[in-house]
Amino acid sequence: MRMRHAVPYIALAAMVLSMPAMADPPDFDRPGAGFATSVLPAGGVALEQGVPDWSREPDDSGALQGKYTADSLFRVGLGGPVELQLGGSAWNHLYGDGEHRTGHGDSSVAMKVAPSTNGDFSYAVLGQVTFDNGTHDIGNGARQYTLGTTLGWKLQGDRQFTVFANLDRLQGSNTWTLAPVYTVPLTDNLQGYVETDLIHDGQDGNEGLAGGGLALKLGERAQADTFVLHRVGPRGAQWEAGLGISVYFGRL
What we know:
- The model is unreliable at 1-23 (pLDDT under 50).
- The protein has 1 helix and 13 strands; from the N terminus they run αβββββββββββββ.
- The protein is 6% helix and 61% strand.
- The chain is mainly β.
């Protein structure tokens, strides 16, 4: 990652750290498989930003290519158990096989519902539509429909176990994902997690990724994160990794 891409996000983090503290910061959807089993309060706004995320996987011809992407996710609480999410990536860079391409990715709109639950169990459901408006060879090439859920259990010692199940439908093909995630607190402000992503692609067959990451609380309104995943098996992405920052701006 070149520093000119990092400077705006460093400035954003510094601004957020100077904000007044709040009593109950929200759960962020980054990092890890799935999403938080809670929504923002009515009028609450958050930004979750990759700075950037990176992957290395085979293209249609089987040659390995790398991709940097600055994924952005805007979250807006609509009241009750409902949240609106707008996603996209204004900057992407593909490289490999002697070629370099830069452009923007597809954009998406999603609704998340997280019914209130009692005890140590919680869950949320998210439906998303991703539009085919990205730069050629960077976007999906067609509209994609997604339906997913995260189930969460609180364990002793502030540990947590979640299971993420997801279905993507793209160009008449279904991709199923099942990902268990185990999270443990390491300090008052730092938590770590491990995950395994089990994927069945309707066109490419079974894939798998395993790895983990860290999330560092920055004051009461922000979080920095990092993660690394490696391929398990002969198919799928060889590596996925990234850095990110998430900011809660409060109720606007």
